[in-house]
Predict the 3D structure of the following.
Amino acid sequence: MSRTAVVYHSAYGHAKRVAEYVAEGANGTLIAIDANGDLPEGAWERLASADAIIFGAPTYMGSPSWQFKKFADASSKAWFTRAWQDKVFGGFTVSASLNGDKQVSLISLQTLASQHGGIWVSLGMLPSNSSLATRNDVNNLGGSVGLLVQAPSDVGADEIPAGDLETARLYGQRVAKVAQKQNGYPSFQQSFTSI
């Protein structure tokens, strides 16, 4: 079984709820980025020992929250030593609007994973985009790069549409399965050197 860490920032509880569903699907652990953009004690070590890391952040003004960006900048120490090389990565974002430029945030998360030499896992689901589709259907927002979630601005985290939460759970499961497969085979470097 793979070890998955879900590292996320949540200001109002919406991203936290999504992270919980992602972690449930991945059978992973949660690492919350606090209001100052810092990680709890021991979190960097847990990330280093994880097989998969799933990033999560709200989308504010077209990009992840500044707290998440502070964490991303602080990960440069892991980048420099290639500590996360060949780990499996995924990501999610949540905003109040159906679109709200969430795709920009996902690409930012994907770029961070790529800078670390990681292997990014797409959502891997067809969109629920027929005339009969509702917000209770999985992937109703039509994501492909990663998980997109919409939470209305005037309600709490308990009002996130059921379809988005089920998509979150399934995505966590997918990332963990990919990590398990990745760890079941020799690394690319090992395969390359044996040729």
